[in-house]
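User: Please fill in residues for this 252-position structure.
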């Protein structure tokens, strides 16, 4: 018996079948290999390729209240304007305790560079006031001792705090395994076939990614970077994508 090798594109992926005593090698497209993998295999492959491209991430645990406020500021803006808005806020009021006691209009003026400043100023003030009212100070470290679903539910009870914001606090401040999905991650994972358009991307990604906080942080940051630099909303640069070999929509 012999194997019949059929080359296709960059690689030949084969399945062995038997017919009339012969072993045949059936070539399939590289992109379709991803669909034959189970979810863990898909995530492992993606994580490995992104690690090869971007390397390990640098991670410093952040203060959870600061993380909560900066993530609210990050909504509908870029990292640069988020950071400028936060610095402006702290410089003007001396810290988050000062922000809590400041008039909403003054908060809005301080964070104007971040966009949606009127809406965000109301949310920020209400979040800080409620934390102090319920906890006695700007300290939410008690969340570390709660089951993940209870901690998420507490954060989600704040107006303007969604799964992405709550998840970032839990993952980056408390080292808890919850994978937050932003617009870049949603786009990339849908193109890879990990998330369907009708799926809740947070539910789906937290089902298929191993509950390892370090892996989730790395994937979160590297998928965002891929979405910003390569997998653009329009005209994605598929030629430069480390995942192109097995992406169903790559323009190869």
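Assistant: Residues filled in for all 252 positions:
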């Amino acid at each position: 018996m012999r194997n019949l090798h059929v080359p296709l594109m960059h690689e030949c992926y084969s399945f062995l079948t038997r017919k009339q005593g012969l072993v045949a090698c059936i070539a399939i497209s590289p992109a379709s290999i991803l669909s034959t993998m189970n979810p863990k295999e898909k995530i492992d492959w993606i994580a490995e390729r992104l690690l090869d491209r971007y390397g390990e991430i640098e991670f410093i645990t952040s203060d959870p209240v600061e993380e909560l406020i900066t993530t609210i500021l990050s909504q509908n803006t870029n990292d640069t304007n988020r950071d400028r808005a936060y610095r402006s806020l702290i410089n003007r009021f001396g810290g988050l305790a000062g922000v809590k006691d400041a008039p909403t209009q003054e908060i809005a003026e301080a964070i104007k560079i971040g966009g949606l400043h009127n809406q965000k100023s109301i949310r920020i003030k209400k979040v800080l006031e409620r934390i102090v009212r319920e906890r006695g100070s700007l300290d939410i470290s008690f969340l570390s001792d709660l089951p993940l679903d209870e901690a998420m539910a507490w954060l989600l009870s704040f107006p303007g705090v969604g799964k992405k914001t709550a998840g970032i606090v839990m993952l980056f401040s408390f080292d808890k395994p919850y994978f937050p999905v932003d617009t870049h991650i949603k786009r990339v994972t849908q193109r890879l076939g990990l998330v369907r358009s009708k799926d809740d991307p947070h539910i789906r990604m937290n089902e298929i990614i191993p509950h390892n906080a370090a892996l989730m942080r790395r994937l979160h940051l590297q998928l965002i970077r891929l979405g910003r630099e390569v997998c653009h909303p329009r005209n994605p640069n598929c030629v430069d994508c480390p995942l192109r070999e097995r992406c169903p929509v790559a323009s190869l």
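For context: Residues 69 and 124 are 7 Å apart (CA to CA).
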